Structure formats: C-alpha cells, structure tokens
Amino acid sequence: MNEIITGLSYKDSIPISISIKDGIIDSLKKNETLEESDLFIAPGFIDIQVNGYINKSFNSPGLTVNEVNEATRALWKTGVTTYFPTLITNPQKTLVDNFKVLALASNEPETGLSIPGFHLEGPYISPVDGYRGAHSLEDVRSPNWDEFLELKNAADDKILLVTIAPEVDGAESFIKNCVQENIVVSLGHHNGTTEQIKKAATLGAKLSTHLGNGCANSINRFKNPIWQQLSDERLIASIIVDGFHLPKEVVDVFYKTKGYKNIILVSDMTELAGMPPGKYNWLGKEVVLTAEGLLTFPEQNVFAGASLPLSTGIENMMSYTGCSLAEAVDMASKNPAQLHGLSDRGEIEPGKRADLVLFRMEENKIIIEKTILAGKTIYQNVDS
Q1: How many CB atoms are located within 10 Å of the residue 334 CB?
Q2: 8 A C-beta contact, residue 13 and residue 230
Q3: Chain mean position to CA 143
Q4: Is the full-model pTM beyond 0.90?
Q5: How far apart are the C-alpha atoms of 79 and 73, rounded to whole Å?
C-alpha cells in the first residue's frame, strides 16, 4: 500500500501529492483538492560538515556507535536526513579509531541511511595561526598518502570529502591521488596563492570549505585566498550562514558571484550545538558558547565551529540575499547530493529515495513538522 504525503512544493508553493512505495517516491503530482495549507515539502537536508551534536563529539577519543546513533536521531529533528560526520585535525590514532566507529555506525540499519560517508577536514592544513583556526597545531602535518590509506581503510573506504591546504608540501600529489580514488577534494584552512589555488583546481579540487572562514583575521585586501576561490568557476563554495561566520553583505556577494547552483550550505556544528550557553572544554581548549549561538576560541580570537543547524543557514540565505526558498533549500539538498554523486536523494522526483522534510515558515523561521527517511517517519513535531 502506498503512503501519500501532501503539502506545498518548496519550489513554487503549488499543492502536491507524493506517493511513496517501499521507501521510494513512486509518483509526484499536483493536488487539485488540497485545502488551504502552509506546510511545505522539501527534500531532506544534506549537511556535509558535522563535527558532532548534543554533546556527542565525533572527534573525541572513546567515540561509540551509540553516540553516533544519538547524534543522528537528534539531527533528524532539524530536518537533516543525510550528513557527513566530520573528523578534524587529530592524532593519527584518534582518527583511525574514530573512523572505525563511524564505519560501524554507517552500517546500522537506520543510522546508515543518513551516513553515506565522511569528511576529513585536516590534518593536512596550514599550520599558521588564523588559517589553522581552532585545529590543534601539534597535530597539523603534511599530506602522507600511506598515512591517509590507513584512515581510508579504517573508514571502510567511506571518506568522501577531504579538506586540504593547497600550499603545503605534498598537496599536489595528494590531490591527484584523491581524485583518482573519486574522493572530492576541498580547499580550506589555507593561505594558498592564486597560482596554488588554480593548480589545485586544475588537478581536480572541486570545493572550497567554508569560504571566507579558515583565514587569518587580518589579510591583504587583494592578495588573499578568498578572491581566487571566489572567481574560479571550477570551485563550488561551501559556506556557513549562521549569522556569525559571514556578514550579510559577504554572503550576498558570494551568492551573486557563484550563483545558487554553485553554493553548498553547511552547518559546521560541533558537539556543543544544542547545549546551553557557557564555557566548555573542547578538544583541550576553552571555548565559549553565547546565548545567541556564537561559538568562539578566545585564545586566538577565532571561531570554534558552529552551533546552529542547517535550517538556520537556509533562513539566513533567504534573508541576506533575497533568494527564493527553492534556491536556499537546493543549496542544502540538491547541490551537495550532486557534488558527491548521491543520485538517490536530494530531489523530489519519482525513483528517488523518499527523504523528505515537512515544515512551516513562521516569521521567516523554519519550523520542522515531520522528517521522513526512506519513506519512514523518523521525527514528528508533537508540539504543533
């Protein structure tokens, strides 16, 4: 028996009916009889940069499968149906151990549906203060392919995205190897020159990790890594639009320059997302989470990841740029799916997996009412 989901298409607000059979979208058609509704239906959100959630860190020693399961279930409440657990700069043993746990979690019956693979952000990044961000200096190192193969093996060949600094020794050969392995290479936490960025893109790098961030607070107004990445049409930009990482005007310029088809919204949430404001010890550093959701590492006056969900980025993208709901949602669903070859999700079309999020807009805020993963309701807002 087919299940029918009704609501307003996120693309044009037209009432639609979606028929789901065996977890797959069977048909999609205009609903001529739907009474007045304010419930939008969109593809489930896809977040390719999640470091942790609700006090569950993917980067801390001792990570367990149960912790990954709990973080995943909590993410469902935010409309995220697919995400990449992200490991940042750490000792090799921690990376190996945690990738093994993540690989086990990705084989869990429900959790695995939401985790197609992982993002390795570091340790092959700039060691320079500012560009390094909150990454641990003692664990930053040059690319080593044999070392990476150990990580790749521990991750059960599920590392889908690697962030690297193009200027570090060995970057060029490392990028070539990743591209041959069908791993998406992203440039981030770097101070690459125009020539180095161009070379990386020529070798196959496709993405810029949280463009505009992972930089020193003071940079040359012209000779800096932002301009070339912004101008290079071969590089898609992932951006954090949480209201803190990028000013409104910068987001608007990125949108106008890249176009919505070449932007991916990410949350960059850490385990402190969903936690009360205060001072916390995060990977051995004292960080501060404000009531507004700003997460900082005061010692270096840099961000320490983010604490707001991907839906906040969708809201802010519309507010900052005037883009449509359809464009903003595509930046958080269709675009990341296409970049990573996740051809079974990211769009509402017959034959795609029935990953859906149903939400209302109240005072320009997204209120998640229901999240559906592979045709199964995994979250229902009982307060509405």
Answers
A1: 23
A2: no
A3: 23
A4: yes
A5: 10
Q: What pLDDT shows up at residue 33?
A: 85
Tokens, residue 325? 């709901």
Those residues of the chain that have pLDDT short of 50 are none
Token reading at 12 = 């044009």
Contacts of 366 (CB under 8 A, 6+ apart): 79, 311, 314, 315, 359, 360
List Cβ neighbours of 344 (8 Å cut-off, separation of 6 or more). 352, 353
The residue type found at 11 is K
Each as own residue / partner, the long-range contacts of residues 176-184 (CB below 8 Å, 24 or more positions apart, any chain) are: 176/203, 176/204, 177/145, 177/148, 178/204, 179/203, 179/204, 181/152, 182/341, 183/159, 184/160, 184/339, 184/340
Cβ atoms of residues 364 and 315 within 8 Å: yes
Token pair, residue 223, equals: 């000779």
**Confidence at residue 134, expressed as pLDDT on a 0 to 100 scale:** 87
In this structure, the number of other CB atoms found within 10 A of the CB of residue 222 comes to: 6
**What b/e readout covers 232-260, taking b as 16+ CB neighbours within 10 angstroms?**
beebbbbbbbbbbbbeeebbbebbeebeb
Backbone phi, then psi, for 149, in 5-degree steps?
-60, -30
In the three-class reduction of DSSP (H, G, I as helix; E, B as strand; rest coil), residue 360 is classed as strand
Strand partners, 162: 120, 185
Bridge partner list, 360? 367
Q: Would you say the CATH fold of 44-339 matches that of 3-41+349-380?
A: no
Residues paired with 303 in a beta bridge = 296
Answer whether 361's CB lies under 8 Å from 69's CB.
no
For domain 44-339, the CATH architecture is: Alpha-Beta Barrel (3.20)
Give the integer Cα–Cα distance in Å for 57 and 217. 27
The residues with which 21 forms a beta bridge, in sequence order, are 24
DSSP class per residue in 242-267: SSSSS-HHHHHHHHHHH-GGGEEE--
Q: Which helix (H) or strand (E) holds 68?
A: helix 65-76
Fold exhibited by the domain 3-41+349-380: Urease, subunit C; domain 1 (2.30.40)
pLDDT of the residue at 284:
81
Dihedral (CA of 50, 41, 6, 78) sign: positive
* Per-domain boundaries in the chain: 3-41+349-380, 44-339
